[in-house]
Design goal:
Length: 430
């Protein structure tokens, strides 16, 4: 191995990032629902905000400013709700008003990470949601943009360079797609029933549903595949010396699979939340300066007459947070208390060179939640009582959602439920 390869391996081995995505489709779900879940594991002090952007129209020729680069804007975008690191344009996870959910994971492959700034995997998550009206359509958006603009750029708010490739889980009311990338190359696997999870590793083997037109020829030209044996994407494109983070992800992936399989046939929103809160498996992460900074669970009924429900924490550690439901509505009240401050052109992310300083991106809910976490060290009993009350609030919300899905409560009465839950949570913290 060359010195350059050794240096790259050391750098990748130090990469402290991980996430987990889950989906359950009937008959894996208890009801006729598709259930999506994701934990976003990021630097411990990074703030994740939850932002709703309504659908919008743009004149022909408009340009869109993503985290680092501009790309042509489309004439019409879907309404989206996103859980996103406050410093970037893109999102770790989110949903649109067409019943599509997308989440991404960091991964490294035999293809080198391209230098320079391009689209972040998180940018591609948001772009897929803004432009795709189904899981497959979002996948097509992502792969087209990937092939045109590439992926790359600094992935954390820090001057020290750190970049990676991405895998994605894309879900709608009918099916799910696992999309795995290596540079501009990609491969996808369709999932139509049962349970599935992904972590920071390649999982698609020979069961390939769609792929980049040059995927196999590139692998053969590089000497990674002889062109005769069965083509197994994970075996061919996984690095010979995977970074430590990918090795550790195997344990989480296995643990997540086991948890899903334990509940196969009975997965609900509550079950998915319990999986995201599981600390023994490492899925709920809080170690080494990194933690689960945001979590999301979505319920997508197969019956298109019923609304989709998306739950977000907007605060770190789902075991010490509550999931608050969001429903797309024409009259939803903006929830500014989970939106971070904006710094315009003075933002250290936008100045060149980037990331030379940091600003306070904490939103109101984050500050209130952080204060309670800090007080737990001196008043654990009092803090536990607060969480017990909040968990009761979460249970009440889940009961109301269940009643709505069964037709007992009109869905339009719950359009401000996210606003009400955030407001109530802050009051309890105070």
């Amino acid at each position: 191995m060359s010195r350059k390869s050794d240096e790259m391996r050391v750098k990748m081995a130090e990469a402290p990032l991980s996430c987990d995505c889950f989906v359950s489709l009937p008959p894996g779900s208890r009801d006729d629902h598709v259930i999506f879940g994701k934990n976003s594991d990021r630097p411990q002090n990074e703030v994740q905000e939850v932002v709703h952007y309504p659908s919008a129209s743009y004149p022909p020729g408009s340009m869109l400013e993503c985290t680092y680069i501009q790309i042509p804007q489309v004439e019409q975008t879907h309404a989206v709700v996103l859980s996103k690191p406050a410093w970037m344009w893109g999102a770790e996870m989110g949903a649109n008003d067409r019943g599509v959910c997308v989440g991404n994971e960091a991964v490294w492959t035999r293809e080198p990470v391209a230098p320079g700034e391009a689209l972040l995997g998180m940018d591609l998550v948001r772009l897929g949601l803004e432009r795709g009206d189904s899981a497959w359509a979002a996948l097509t958006v992502i792969t087209s943009l990937l092939e045109e603009h590439g992926q790359g750029g600094q992935c954390k708010e820090d001057p020290e360079s750190f970049s990676y490739h991405n895998t994605f889980l894309l879900v709608d009311r009918n099916e799910a797609w696992v999309l795995e990338t290596a540079g501009k190359l990609w491969v996808a696997q369709k999932v139509t029933e049962g349970v599935k999870n992904i972590s920071n590793q390649l999982t698609i083997g020979a069961e390939i549903s769609a792929e980049h037109s040059e995927l196999r020829s590139t692998a053969q030209a590089q000497g990674w595949w002889d062109g005769e044996k069965e083509f197994n994407f994970s075996a061919v494109f996984s690095p010979e010396n995977p970074p430590a983070r990918m090795e550790l992800a195997k344990q989480r992936y296995k643990g997540g699979t086991e948890l899903l399989q334990q509940h196969d046939g009975s997965v609900t929103a509550e079950v998915m939340m319990s999986i995201l809160r599981d600390k023994p498996s490492g899925i709920c992460m809080n170690s080494g300066g990194f933690c689960t900074t945001g979590s999301m669970v979505s319920v997508l009924p197969r019956d298109a007459s019923l609304p989709c429900i998306h739950f977000f924490t907007a605060t770190p550690d789902p075991s010490r947070s509550i999931f608050k439901p969001f429903i797309f509505s024409d009259c939803s009240t903006p929830v500014l208390r989970v939106v971070s401050p904006q710094f315009g052109p003075d933002d250290p992310v936008k100045k060149q060179p980037r990331f030379q300083s940091q600003v306070d991106r904490r939103h109101d809910l984050y500050k209130a939640h952080q204060a309670v976490l800090n007080s737990m060290e001196t008043n654990p009993d009092e803090s536990s009582a607060v969480y017990e009350v909040l968990r009761d609030l979460e249970s009440q919300c889940l009961s109301e959602i269940s009643a709505m899905l069964s037709g007992e409560i009109p869905g339009d009465e719950l359009g401000d439920l996210f606003f009400d839950c955030v407001d109530t949570e802050i009051k309890f913290y105070q």
